[in-house]
Structures
1.
Amino acid sequence: MTGPVVVDIAGARLDAADRRRLRHPLVGMVILFARNYESPGQLVALCDEIHALRDPPLLIAVDHEGGRVQRFRQGFTRVPPMAALGRLWQRDALVACRAALAAGYVLGTELRAHGVDLSFAPVLDLDWGRSAVIGDRALHEDARVVTLLGAQVCHGLALAGMSNCGKHFPGHGWAAADSHVDLPTDERSLDAILGADAAPYGWLGVGLDAVMPAHVVYPAVDALAAGFSPRWLRDILRGRLGFTGAVFSDDLSMQGARTAGDVTQAAQTALAAGCDFVLVCNDAPAADRVLDALRWVPPPAFAQRRARLVPRAPAVAAPALQHSERYRAALADLEPALAP
């Protein structure tokens, strides 16, 4: 059994400190960033080494959504920002659905070909025109369109053998502040949020494998940010919306997590609230403090939820992708979303 802590690594190759940390029994996953990427071959070698460290292997994740949040670029297809799919919807809904499926398939297939197991995608936030940190990462302003396009992205990921992670529950699109450097708040009522921003999570149902809550406070519902709130995670997400997959905290080194105390307190609070995994990124000493201090007993459903994140089919090796008819067809289907 692996643990609930998701950590990062320093550079493009593992060093001794990385290897020590990744062998800690409470580490369950590794998240990669742009600094960990030099070339396709280097990424394959890095992922192979990470997978070989543990049995069962650690899962490897990345934020790779397309647009400005695409960690690996050279050697990877330029996937448009998700807002391009929403704009395409306005012109031709069926072509947009086909492009959304292709986006998920291309992202998932290319990542898996290089050893990555999971991308934290798709973004399900609504585009209210208020949040710069979300901005063109959002598919559309209409929750119904977000749901339909998001479902196609998820389907494309599934065709690549990859699970999905909808974010940022119950919605980051209304809150203007950036939770990386501030604590956003959303003053609306629970009914208003459930009727719009959180609606895709209920409508997508069992199609969602994982969810990442927002570092946003919704004071009409709870004084705690969503990722630290049993009200949001247990009562609403799981109880009212029926979600059965894994819950990831957003990065606990972000400013929006400070309402829960220091990073070790935040990790314990997030897990107690209903998170299955907690991310501690860009701060190796903080990750070590969490691993040293955390007291964790696997919840009854943890093994099943983690199992849903494991890739479901063998990956196609990167050199063979260019000869795959399905992959080439997906690239063609993505073209309309790349048009100005």
Note: The CA atoms of residues 185 and 217 lie 5 Å apart.
2.
Amino acid sequence: MPPVIRLPVADGSVAPYAMREPVAWNLPTGPIRSRVAYAAAHVVCDPLADRDPLSHAPLDWEATLAYRCHLWSLGLAVAEAMDTAQRGMGLDWPAARELIRRSLAEARATAGAIACGAGTDQLAAADAVTLADVERAYEEQVGYVEGEGGRVILMASRALARAARRPDDYARVYGTVLRQVSRPVILHWLGDTFDPQLAGYWGARDVDEAMNACLAIICEHRLKIDGIKVSLLDAEREIAMRGRLPDGVRMYTGDDLNYEQLILGDGGDPRGHSDALLGIFDAIAPAASAALQALDRGDVPAYHAALAPTVPLSRHIFRAPTHAYKTGIVFLAYLNGHQRHFRMIGGAESWRSVPHLVELFRLADRAGLLADPDRAADRMRRVLALAGVE
């Protein structure tokens, strides 16, 4: 019998909440074929490391790598050292470099699919940077990922957004980097909803003009580009851009609000759907895997049955301020026993309110994403007790 837990409600009182029976999600028996699906994986901090968590990002390597193995067991690929891992928000380049090295080694040992973020975050935010500085920074990180045998996700650059003045500046920097890569990369267009420092990316404040500039770069370097992850939270614009991509270049949705419709697509045309590179897939991995397995079977109703209940949860996790979504991702991993604590690098566990976490608990339960209701309820009670809820 699932537990009943007393949870705060909107008027500040506490009321009983009856949890549902857990869902037994099926593991895939082989590779997922219908879509390419990356989960941008979070990191687990080491709460007992006696170091400054704001500057040194001490990680629990065992738990961090175990979570990647969990994602691989569900047939998902791992997008490593991305913004879900607090890249640029607590995870600096030296820590990201070690994360990439260890994760690539784990991927080789377990035959897990992986791609790794390469950016320019070794450049200090306070420094005046030139386009040449940005190029060198990208070259260093791309060289490191490829030197370790990894595939590159070319992350959006805050430094480039500061240094560039027009689309030609982006074309210069991306062209310089893309001409040097040894295998096709995934580009990343992260909207300013996620990171206000990336406003005006591709050299234009108007999103349609920015899209044109981005597409021009993709078309010029199409043989060096596997695809582009678009995180604009605008389904119509993603669909429009998807239809304009050159043959062979994938659209990886980064839309954590509309992924269900974008991944399913409209059938027929190979460009009629998006593949996935999503932070929410870290949190909803069992349901995402089940949905993609259903697509492999051509079972669209089963796809919707698995994925549709996760959309309210994702929209809650990614509500404004959107960058704080990482707190919800880690909280759900804690509820599900993937880590022993609810602590984050940089103290990011404080980025969301207790009522927000309570609603996340309810929505995760309704989506069948609390694997062990008794454990989840016990851990929720601990969090509430710290907040003074009896």
Note: The CA atoms of residues 92 and 121 lie 7 Å apart.
3.
Amino acid sequence: MLKFAANLSMMFNEAPFLDRFSAAADAGFRGVEYLFPYEFPADAIAERLREHRLENVLFNLAPGNWSAGERGLTCIPGRESEFRQSVETAISYATRLNTSRVHAMAGIVPAGADPAAVEATYIGNLKYAAEKLAAHGVTLLIEAINTRDMPGFYLTTQAQSYAVCAAVNAPNIRMQMDLYHMQIMEGDLTMKLRKYAPHCGHIQVASVPDRHEPGSGEVDYAYLFRVLEELKYDGWIGCEYRPGGKTVDGLGWFRQAK
């Protein structure tokens, strides 16, 4: 049986963040994910998870200055100290929230940066993060993101993601495969899933092109969910989409899939 986690950064936005946990549980979700927890004390989030019997399956390392357009620090030369601090902060939250996966966003490549330096910085930072996280039983995820939504993003394809995992060569680094981004950049979703599923630690879904409920766009998610069952994928599927209306009104796909 497939396991779906509500993304509380995008779903249930009808309520304040800390109230979205109860909304997700009431809708039938047993897992939740979100972009960043750092605006709230870990104890406050832990209490919501405990009260509603939810598993926090994923969050991201701090991305730098999000409001200024930064989308991760991992590949940016000269920001290594800030990246390392973000790892320590993520560990403090992950251990308090019993979160077993964190995602390190690659980042936007700085204009004029030396490609070799960017690659070396990226791999070096991931090796550092993987080692630190492994001591706490946490898996490090990397995600290819489309350049239409994030122009200049460093990591953009599944082949590149797989090659990075091989270069880091740590037992706790895995691919995070977001089918929304994958469809925009590459397509051929079924074959990508079959090829990379053994190296995948998390999947995310949304319709294309509007990033609404799965099944409302050009991607046949009912078929892809059957493919994941055939592959015996036992990880979580994060619902990282923006509801087309009220969140609960658009959950027909979820009731059919679970």
Note: Residues 3-257 form a domain with the TIM Barrel fold (CATH 3.20.20.150).
4.
Amino acid sequence: MSGSERTALAASRRWVIKVGSALLTNEGRGLDAAMIGSLVAQIAALRAEGAEVVLVSSGAVAAGVVRLGWPRRPTRLHELQAAAAVGQSALIQSYETAFRSYNIASAQVLLGHDDITARDRYLNARGTLTTLLRLGVVPVVNENDTVVTDEIRFGDNDTLAALVANLIDADALLLLTDQQGLYEEDPRLNPFAVLVDSRDVHDEALDSMAGEGGALGRGGMITKLRAARLAARSGTETVIASGRHPEVVAQVAAGGPIGTWLRTGKQPENARKQWLAGMVQIPGSLELDAGAVRVLRESGRSLLPVGVVAVSGRFERGDMVLCLGPDGREVARGLVNYSAQETHRIMGRPSAEIAPLLGYQGDEELIHRDNLVLC
């Protein structure tokens, strides 16, 4: 496919944009204010077109290394964490200042592995990010490097960006790097290497084309390819492009022939439904009354406690549960916002009574429509 056929990208309304440390730190010489200013200006312009943007930003460790006066990136875990702590504050302050000039609020969001893999924290992270987007805020996401251990880290921010794309159902993921995109051969070894314009993300030929990362960032083309395949699970289209290309964000968002487009071939909504439907651990079920079944099928709305007449199984917040009609047939399945014990207490009751019954104000939906798939 040529760039002129990138209609899926031009139609994208929810973006995750990841920028690497080599770009932000000017190859290790400290935070590059001009690059940060340019990136923020482009994000502001994209938002002005009606898009939502989550920014996943590397650079905290690299910025901290420079501020601490170290000659190179350390390898010891606690030194890396110290560098991240020093650099993260400088990084987020730079973004806050730049976004403020466009009257845009930004928010620092530090995520760990458990925030995306643990059931309850997954829902919390998703709810926080989608709420920030609804409020018109730009979330600036990074891995919580100051406390995470090697055993439970994402490994690189390309992977984190892909998981954030899954988390918020992003239409598109833009991985900004210091190269033009993915080449058929390593351009550092072959100056005549051909840039891959567009390819199916699952094409096995791509594996031999990807190369390793540099000294500052850990995210080479191998991690970007893996990230694109992760993002594809929820139907997110991925583009790898140079962050130094003038107006790269606008050109990619307009469907221009820039960088490498790794196509999913799926509609995001259908891909998410496939992901939800494919979850095999289903520890419980909810029996719905006829009215709730009708609302789900005809209106596509969330499931409220008032429509539930019985609860079976032992499940916790964030677990997948079945939704059964009065005839016992499966109507839907989804990620539940309350445990089985809590659901017993609030079933059949209006959402306004959740706080008095449970002693705290939780979600008004038992299963939000974004986490619900009809059968």
Note: Residues 3-268 form a domain with the Carbamate kinase fold (CATH 3.40.1160.10).
